[in-house]
Amino acid sequence: MERPTNVAIITFLMFAGGIVLTAAAVSLLIVGAIIATAGDGGEPMSVAITGMTVGAGFVSLVLAFIFACLGMAVPDFHDWARTASTSAIVADLEPGSRSILSSANRFWAATFPPRDKNHKLSLRP
Known about the structure:
76% helix
């Protein structure tokens, strides 16, 4: 049976996301180890930063494992895998689209100010 193109694309995106998350996890764990072994390792701020980087590293590893499992299950046409992977991709794209729309709104407000001379130009953050 021939696989549909969208299944191949979703599988590729899941494995690519898993690779990116694994690289992020490794880099976070390395940064945590560097901060922990630095000269000021006992300072409260360095302990907090070490804890955050190690925690984020392990969370990234868990997410990478989930992405890899979804990437292996999608080509077998498991319905739960397709639903979960598609919702993960859509949830990942949503903040980026909000950022793009917000930037376009700021550009539009700065480029085309209102015609009313009494109205001051205000850029929304």
